[in-house]
Amino acid sequence: MHEFTATGPLVGGALIGLSASLLLLFNGRVAGVSGVLGGLLFPSRRPGDAAWRAAFLAGLLLGGLALAAAHRGAFPSVDGARSLGLVVVAGLLVGYGARLGNGCTSGHGVCGLSRLSVRSLCATMTFMATAAITVHVSLHVLGAAR
């Protein structure tokens, strides 16, 4: 584990907020990743809609790859690596949950909270509580079984 410094998270958070604001200002769109992907998988008839969505998602992937190449330890390996099938099932469940909740953590947590949306506040609190419970169960219940 590396020593924590606030600089990286502060800069990263500011860049996420700036990019979400710019997308809303110049494109009139909320930077919710599940909605961006959903609009790419099930396209609308708006001209250019698929292009900005593909560019947005490509930027997310390329940014992660660039970080992994620049800093080898940016994405540490997890003990007991999971199977590809389990990762795919988990990803599909997350996608289904995002659709069920009418948005994801980026749409509700970043964009919705900044617009003072009560619905987004409730969704974000639910995401965070579920994450805390999941970590607790995985560390204390499942970890004890090993």
Gist?
With about 150 residues, the protein is mainly alpha-helical.
Helix/strand/pairing class, anyone?
mainly alpha
Distance between the termini: 22 Å
- Kindly state the percentage of residues in helix: over 70%
Which segments are poorly predicted (pLDDT under 50) over 5 or more consecutive residues? none
If you average the pLDDT, what whole number results? 83
Along the chain, the helix and strand elements come as: HHHHHH
The total number of structural domains is 1
Radius of gyration: 17 Å
Please give a structural write-up.
This protein has helices at about 5-25, 35-40, 50-70, 85-100, 105-115, 120-145. The chain is mainly α. The two termini are about 20 Å apart. The chain has one domain (about 5-145). The longest helix is centred in the C-terminal third of the chain and has 28 residues, at about 120-145. It is about 75% helix and about 0% strand. It is globular and about 50 Å long.
List the helices and strands and how they pair.
Blueprint: H1 7-27, H2 33-41, H3 49-70, H4 84-100, H5 105-114, H6 118-145
Helix pairs in contact: 2-3, 5-6
Summary tags:
mainly alpha; 146 residues
